[in-house]
């Protein structure tokens, strides 16, 4: 088994609408885009509960063990509840993109108004060798997000002081 991120193409650069289906990565990206279109088809475009968290492990060492990339979008996709979730999850840094990039989170933000982030959670390692204890705050925040009724989980930290480092 090869321990590398991709074989033919970096799939996280294929979310710019339909791709020529020249390899398994482009086929998968097209499938994910079609599934996302179907998923969001019945929801209101300006629904603040429309979230997309694209979870990854960083392929390189980073000063920050956890960080988020907020994709550029002309839609209002950087809400206080979304950033409050990152604070509760103890995500260390947030990078704010200032131009479009064909990532999965950008696709959902730009085309469907989703509150979206690409989240880098630790560094890629062979299966079972990640330091999961360092991700416990993220796990707890995610669990609260999906089990707390209505808007409570997405607004329970509004107004609290942040410890983030914003990187431009």
Instruction: Please identify which CATH superfamily we are dealing with.
Output: Zn peptidases
Q: Tell me the CATH architecture.
A: 3-Layer(aba) Sandwich
Strand content: 15-25%
Sequence of secondary-structure elements: HEEHEHEHHE
Report the end-to-end length measured between terminal Cα atoms: 37 Å
The structural class is: alpha/beta
Q: Which outline best applies?
A: globular
Major beta-sheet overview: 5 strands, mixed
What is the helix tally? 5
Name the poorly predicted regions.
157-168
What portion of residues is helical?
25-40%
**Tally of extended strands?**
5
CATH names the topology as: Aminopeptidase
Count of domain modules:
1
How do the strands line up in the largest sheet? Answer: 1-4-2-3-5
Mean pLDDT: 84
Report the C-alpha radius of gyration, rounded: 16 Å
> What is the CATH first-level class name?
Alpha Beta
SSE layout and pairing:
Blueprint lengths: L23 H17 L10 E8 L7 E5 L9 H9 L4 E4 L7 H9 L2 E9 L12 H12 L4 H4 L9 E3 L1
Parallel strand pairs: 1-4, 2-3, 3-5
Antiparallel strand pairs: 2-4
Helix pairs in contact: 1-3
Protein name: Succinylglutamate desuccinylase
Cofactor: Zn(2+)
InterPro entries: AspA/AstE_fam, AstE_AspA_cat
């Amino acid at each position: 088994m090869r321990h590398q991120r991709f074989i033919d193409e970096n799939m996280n650069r294929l979310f710019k609408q339909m791709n020529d289906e020249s390899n398994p990565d482009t086929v998968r990206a097209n499938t994910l885009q079609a599934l996302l279109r179907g998923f969001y088809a019945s929801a209101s475009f300006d629904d603040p509960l429309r979230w997309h968290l694209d979870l990854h492990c960083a392929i390189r060492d980073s000063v920050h063990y956890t960080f988020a990339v907020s994709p550029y979008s002309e839609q209002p996709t950087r809400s206080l509840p979304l950033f409050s979730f990152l604070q509760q999850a103890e995500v260390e840094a947030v990078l704010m993109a200032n131009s479009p990039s064909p990532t999965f989170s950008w696709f959902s933000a730009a085309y469907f108004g989703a509150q979206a982030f690409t989240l880098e959670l630790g560094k890629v390692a062979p299966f079972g060798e990640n330091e999961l204890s360092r991700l416990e705050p993220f796990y707890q925040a995610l669990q609260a997000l999906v089990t707390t009724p209505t808007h409570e989980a997405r607004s329970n930290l509004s107004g609290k002081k942040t410890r983030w480092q914003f990187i431009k």
